[in-house]
Structures are given as C-alpha cells and as structure tokens.
Write a structure and sequence with these properties.
Length: about 90
C-alpha cells in the first residue's frame, strides 16, 4: 500500500496554491500521520512525504473505513474542504 500512496504523491504538484497532502491512518483507531497543511510550504520536498509514508506501520488487523472517513471529516475537512483528495491506507 505504501508504494501505491507514494505513486499518487509522485503525480501531484504539491505546494501552497496547488495540492496539499495529508495522511490519516485507520484501523480500530485513527491516527493523523501528517496534517493536510503540514507541507503547505513551497520549500518542503516530496522526499519528506515519501519518507513519512515509508515509515508508517499497520495500526491493526481490522479495516474501519467509516471511522477513518469520520476522522478526516471531523479533524481536517472543515478547514480544507475545497482541496481534499481522499486516499485510504490501512
């Protein structure tokens, strides 16, 4: 799954006026790995984002997609609703 997420990131133009990247992991719990506004600075590199994805580990055995989407909505959507692209990762 990490390779899949990194391929998507590789195709995005990331920057303050382009695409913002955020990562929320979910299973029985949710964890914000990277906030959507963490890489809004034009000087941040995709290499930093790739490293973040590569350092992720599974949170559990189950898939609670509803919990993951709820977490995205509650914690991130209200600020950046016009610029979000959702990609799930267990």
């Amino acid at each position: 799954m990490q390779r899949f997420v990194n391929r998507i990131i590789g195709r995005l133009d990331i920057g303050p006026s382009q695409n913002l990247v955020g990562i929320v992991q979910y299973s029985e719990i949710t964890m914000t790995v990277m906030r959507f506004d963490s890489y809004a600075n034009i000087n941040d590199s995709k290499a930093d984002i790739y490293k973040t994805v590569d350092n992720m580990f599974p949170l559990g055995d189950n898939t609670n997609t509803a919990l993951g989407l709820r977490s995205l909505f509650i914690h991130h959507y209200h600020r950046l609703h016009h610029r979000l692209l959702f990609v799930g990762y267990l």
